[in-house]
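Reopening this one. Same input as before:
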Amino acid sequence: QVQLRESGGGLVQAGGSLRLTCVASECTFGMGWFRQAPGKEREFVATISLVGSTANEAESLKGRFTIARDNTKNTLYLQMKGLKTEDTAVYYCAACAKVTDQAKLTSTSAYDYWGQGTQVTVSS
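Same output, byte for byte:
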């Protein structure tokens, strides 16, 4: 069972930046970030392939959010800049136990492992 642990969340003013980190207990295949705001469904943020050759951010977040991974450290990152109040949510790290079609990695159902989440709060 792969363990995922997120960190880096916190309170930030609108326009600010944060970098989220997710450390995995072992190397995994595709990985991704999702977020869930109060009263809303969990939504796709970004995904990245095993070797990092393919990265994909949600269209509405491109240019502000960037996903990256360092397999030497079993670590996934999400760099967020120009944060808005609507980015407030719990951010979750997720990982796949097997090779998965990149196109499917925007769906929560593609992932086998999930972290506990880290809260990001953006104030106006």
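So the earlier flakiness isn't reproducible anymore. For the record, The chain has a mean pLDDT of 94.
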